[in-house]
Write a structure and sequence with these properties.
Rossmann fold, 2 domains, 11 helices, 6 strands, 41% helix
Length: 287
């Protein structure tokens, strides 16, 4: 799977993040709970390594709870500050503000000793495209201040969010990195929508998803579409197209449309709570 996916605005956004780091006390990285490793940008991790950091696991309502707990155990063992969250829940704002204050506890105490009380925490929010940053920003601000959409590249500009008297958040555009070190990372990002749909052959991508579902969640495809999982990917597309009435001229099955629906059904949780990777898939001695 080879395609051009690192447009110029991402390099510009990366440079701006470097420049703005001096303005903040804390970096909050938003990752997709379905793909915690694949959705964590190693370039941004390197750039922000000298700042206090909090990982927010978004979309936990779409991720397999058992797998998410394995990731939480990994973060605990690695002494990584983390927060699993559903950004649409009413308590999301309170949870993030409290987690940010806990991550900056040393700074707050240091400010108090210097006589600087009630000094706001400044936190930068980073992440790759389509991990739910804009939804979270709207929750923090209490209004639709950030555009949202189930596609990458929605947030382009820098904006400060005044969430409370205790903390301000600096939102940043989603940034990918120039090269994936493992092809599975590119596949996971493509399946979850972090890479623009126009750059991806849907039928090839759906075939990868089918294999992942058959291997880790047998029976889900059959339950969703009332088709046998013994079929080949091509046969599955034809069966889905026939069942859903996705037909072109002369009754030919629209297999591309069927593959697109399969991917979209995964992205929107129609298969239920499904994760695509475990800590042990990438991280040695994670158990």
């Amino acid at each position: 799977m080879e395609f051009e996916w690192y447009p110029g605005h991402m390099e510009k956004a990366r440079r701006n993040i470097v420049e703005d780091l001096k303005l903040v006390d804390l970096v909050i990285e938003i990752i997709d709970a379905r793909i915690p490793y694949s959705s964590s940008n190693p370039t941004l991790n390197e750039l922000t390594k000298n700042k206090k950091k909090l990982i927010v696991m978004s979309k936990i309502d779409l991720a397999d709870e058992k797998v998410t707990n394995e990731w939480i155990e990994y973060y605990k063992k690695s002494d990584i500050a983390y927060l699993p969250i559903n950004a649409l829940k009413k308590d999301a704002k309170k949870l993030i503000v409290n987690a940010a204050k806990e991550a900056c506890k040393e700074k707050i105490e240091r400010d108090k000793r210097r006589g600087l009380r009630n000094r706001k925490i400044k936190a930068m929010i980073i992440g790759i495209p389509n991990v739910g940053k804009s939804t979270l920003i709207n929750t923090l601000s209490g209004k639709a201040s950030a555009k949202t959409g189930n596609k990458p590249g929605v947030t382009r500009g820098k904006q400060w969010i005044h969430a409370s008297n205790e903390i301000d958040f600096l939102d940043t555009p989603g940034v990918l990195w120039p090269k994936f070190d493992r092809h599975e990372i590119g596949e996971n990002l493509a399946i979850t929508g972090a890479i623009r749909n126009e750059l991806i052959p849907f039928e090839e991508l759906a075939e990868i998803l089918i294999e992942k579902l058959k291997s880790n969640y047998p029976g889900l495809i059959e339950k969703r579409y009332s088709i046998s999982e013994d079929l080949s990917a091509r046969e599955m597309y034809e069966a889905i197209a026939t069942n859903r009435g996705y037909l072109m001229s002369q009754g030919v099955c629209d297999t591309k449309k069927a593959a697109e629906i399969l991917i979209q059904d995964y992205r929107t949780g129609k298969f239920g709570r499904v994760s695509l990777e475990l800590p042990s898939d990438y991280i040695e001695d994670s158990e």
